[in-house]
Design goal:
Distance between the termini: 46 Å
Shape: globular
Number of helices: 8
Largest sheet: 2 strands, antiparallel
Strand content: under 5%
Structural class: mainly alpha
Radius of gyration: 17 Å
Order of helices and strands: HHHHHEEHHH
Number of strands: 2
Length: 203
């Protein structure tokens, strides 16, 4: 099916949002400020894009492959995955994205990563081990995983690499970007908890 003008315009919007997100992230990573808490500039981008994505979901449901193409659908997922200050949007988005996965409109890995992020923000163990953070040994390690023995089977079913490979890649990327463990891990965790309560993830 050939996309019409409206679908092509929506795809361009989604791609532009994803490109801006990655561009700003890259700029902040380059000067090191990305790793000093939730940067206000990054938060502004995420909040603005979340508002636009909310409109898209209300009008179209999940913008899957047949609507906006493979790249447009991936861009929509990236915007949703980064809308961390908007619990309701991420929860609704996960429901719609899961339906899209079942219909062949999105890859299961995207739903797996979003589900993990939501679970961690809600204070629950993740299922696929996609979410990592600094530990007391100054290493990036997976946050708590439900049924850890079965994680690689679930990852395989979702189209994700084995957990050990994922951890290696995340640690390599952090090293390349100059990210390192926080000077005060407890203070960082307290700040994270405060933010989670502020945004409504936790009570």
């Amino acid at each position: 099916m050939t996309a019409g003008p409206a679908e092509a315009s929506l795809a361009r919007d989604l791609l532009a949002m994803a490109a801006e997100d990655l561009r700003v992230r890259g700029e902040l990573a380059a000067d090191g400020s990305l790793f000093q808490g939730y940067h206000p500039r990054m938060r502004e981008v995420h909040d603005r894009h979340a508002a636009r994505l909310s409109q898209v979901l209300a009008r179209h449901g999940w913008p899957g492959r047949s609507l906006v193409g493979e790249d447009g659908a991936e861009a929509a997922w990236l915007v949703l995955q980064h809308a961390i200050g908007h619990p309701a949007l991420q929860r609704v988005g996960l429901r719609l994205l899961s339906q899209a996965v079942a219909a062949g409109e999105a890859p299961p890995a995207q739903a797996a990563m979003l589900e993990d992020r939501i679970r961690i923000h809600e204070g629950r163990p993740q299922r696929f081990g996609t979410q990592l953070d600094w530990d007391r040994n100054d290493e990036l390690s997976p946050l708590p995983i439900e049924d850890e023995e079965g994680v690689d089977a679930r990852r395989r079913e979702a189209g994700l690499a084995p957990l050990a490979e994922h951890v290696r890649r995340v640690r390599e990327r952090a090293s390349e970007e100059g990210d390192g463990p926080p000077a005060d891990l407890e203070a960082r965790r307290e700040a994270q908890e405060a933010w989670l309560r502020e945004t409504g993830w936790r009570k």
